[in-house]
Amino acid sequence: MKKLVLTGAAGSLGSRLRAPLAAMCDELVSTDIVDSIDDLGANETYVKADIADMNAVEPLLEGADMVIHFGAVVDEAPFEELLGPNFIGAYNVWEASHRHGVRRVVYASSIHAVGMYPKNEAIGIDVPHRPDTFYGLAKCFAEDLGRMYWEKRGLESVCLRIYSCAPVTNPRAVGSWLSYDDMILLVKRSIETPITGFSIIYGISDNDRAPVDNSGARHLGYRPRDNAEQFAEEIYAKAEPLDPQNPSHYCHGGPFAGIPLGKSAMSLLNLKKDDADS
């Protein structure tokens, strides 16, 4: 690769992708809304940019081979707060990619695009959208945007429905965990695969209790290596009994499925400050 562009480079997941991506290309352009980031690689440039501003996004993509789009508000919030970064930002990335002849967008989608399905349904990559929040709705919008740009304009997209990419701290994560190493592997496979067209794949490790089915995306060559079963006994021993009538417990979206629209869910996940979920 000559040039890769990474949005959301200052986030928990984006920051872990910078070095692996830099090793895959001649030039990595990292971008976010913070003033600066530390430890830039020798072939990495940082540009502060708001993805909701097309005039800021478009110049970044000139000459790029692919965009790894991880920039967004990563929580439920009022629709008006998500409109710019999560909806318009997605349009700007795909449209600017089209204008500059970018080959592929690798997008950090989320389980919350289908978060209202019950967990006893092992859903595949082809189930209809069933968002649990405005945040999940933005992921549905971007996935449909990616499909449309592939079918109408030939711009490839790989949508990574990330589940729980954070340390295992709760019973849900025993099934939904995506380790940081597997996350990096997933992104690398999404870049390296010669042809993807429009593809969806769940971002999840090789957990014994994984409640989603990735068999329809084997063409991407993603074979996760980690398994959250190693944490199961300790996590279950500490956890309070779960309520089978509570959407936060029985739906794929976890707390996102149980909260009122527009209210934060990340605070309910028992994560450390620098960790992310889906």
Q: Could you give the distance between the termini? A: 28 Å
Number of domains: 1
List the total number of helices.
9
- Give the helix/strand class: alpha/beta
CATH topology: Rossmann fold
Order of strands, widest sheet: 3-2-1-4-5-6-7
Q: What does this protein look like?
A:
- This protein has nine helices and seven strands; from the N terminus they run E-H-E-E-H-E-H-E-H-E-H-H-E-H-H-H.
- It has 278 residues and is of the alpha/beta class.
- The protein has one domain (3-268): Rossmann fold (3-Layer(aba) Sandwich), CATH 3.40.50.
- The longest helix is centred in the first third of the chain and has 21 residues, at 79-99.
- The model has no long low-confidence stretch (mean pLDDT 96).
- This is NAD-dependent epimerase/dehydratase family protein.
- It comes from Tateyamaria armeniaca.
Keywords summarizing the entry:
single chain; 278 residues; alpha/beta; seven-stranded parallel beta sheet; 9 helices; 7 strands; globular; NAD(P)-bd_dom_sf; NAD; Epimerase_deHydtase; NAD-dependent epimerase/dehydratase family protein
Concise description?
The protein is of the alpha/beta class and about 280 residues long. Helix content is about 30%, strand content about 15%.
Strand and helix map with partners:
Layout: E1 3-7, H1 12-22, E2 27-32, E3 44-48, H2 54-57, E4 66-69, H3 79-99, E5 104-110, H4 134-153, E6 156-162, H5 171-176, H6 180-192, E7 198-203, H7 232-238, H8 247-250, H9 255-258
Parallel strand pairs: 1-2, 1-4, 2-3, 4-5, 5-6, 6-7
